[in-house]
Design goal:
The complex is a heterodimer of chains A (113) and B (113).
Chain A lengths: L2 E4 L4 E4 L4 E3 L1 E4 L5 E7 L5 E7 L5 E4 L2 E4 L9 E3 L8 E8 L7 E3 L3 E6 L1
Chain B lengths: L3 E4 L2 E4 L5 E7 L5 E8 L3 E8 L6 E2 L6 E5 L5 E5 L8 E8 L7 E3 L3 E5 L1
Parallel strand pairs in B: 2-11
Antiparallel strand pairs in B: 1-3, 3-8, 4-5, 4-9, 5-6, 7-8, 9-10, 9-11
């Protein structure tokens, strides 16, 4: 079946540091890939997505590239801010009649001034 | 445009009590979902409704029932609450983009004593 593995946290960074959160997946076919963000006390919000191999999703300074050869979708940001402190979830959608998203377990990021 | 709304935001129940969690979306989406979020477990799908008039079990349906009341509303019922159902519950919906980009509500934090 489908699965998503993302690096365990928590991750603590100083403001303006470089961020990478690793995500790898197992799926049949050509899934769509997502990063969601959850700020404290809130629901999940879509951060970015990529729907085919070599696509780069980007939003709010975050980027992730769909790498089919390594089955990865790592999240990066060049300079994090305190306001980026949140839990980040990698997810995939395999299509083919399925209605389910498969989520990773989440990575908590804390950015300190 | 409120997106996905959920009521209540917080609830405390005693073991054996029943309750219904309400969810509504105003985006004219066809599909709706109920998830639970537990520490270290990510999000797990309880039930989903691919379209009005249909419901299907997800990964963890035991102890829950759902009703797709109309296109806008999708409720989750706990008939006899158990401490293992203490969790944060999220409702989500998705349109017809083909990529299953899901929009989430703010969540209901449920404690069962």
């Amino acid at each position: 079946g489908n699965s998503v593995t993302q690096m365990e946290g928590p991750v603590t960074l100083s403001e303006e540091a470089f961020l990478t959160i690793n995500c790898t997946y197992t799926a049949t076919g050509y899934p769509s890939l997502f990063w969601y963000v959850q700020y404290p006390g809130e629901g999940l919000q879509l951060l970015l997505k990529a729907t085919k191999a070599d696509d780069k999703g980007s939003n709010k300074g975050f980027e992730a590239t769909y790498r089919k050869e390594t089955t990865s979708f790592h999240l990066e940001k060049g300079s994090v801010q305190v306001s980026d402190s949140a839990v980040y979830f990698c997810a995939l959608y395999s299509g083919a009649g399925s209605y389910q998203l498969t989520f990773g377990k989440g990575t908590k990021l804390s950015v300190i001034p | 445009n409120a997106g996905v709304t959920q009521t209540p935001k917080f609830q405390v129940l005693k073991t054996g009590q029943s309750m219904t969690l309400q969810c509504a979306q105003d985006m004219n989406h066809n599909s709706m979902y109920w998830y639970r979020q537990d520490p270290g477990m990510g999000l797990r799908l309880i039930y989903y409704s691919a379209s009005e008039g249909t419901t299907d079990k997800g990964e963890v349906p035991n102890g829950y029932n759902v009703s797709r009341l109309n296109k806008r509303e999708f409720s989750l019922r706990l008939e006899s609450a158990a401490p293992s159902q203490t969790s944060v519950y999220f409702c989500a919906s998705t349109g017809t983009s083909g990529y299953n980009e899901q929009f989430f509500g703010p969540g209901t934090r449920l404690t069962v004593l």
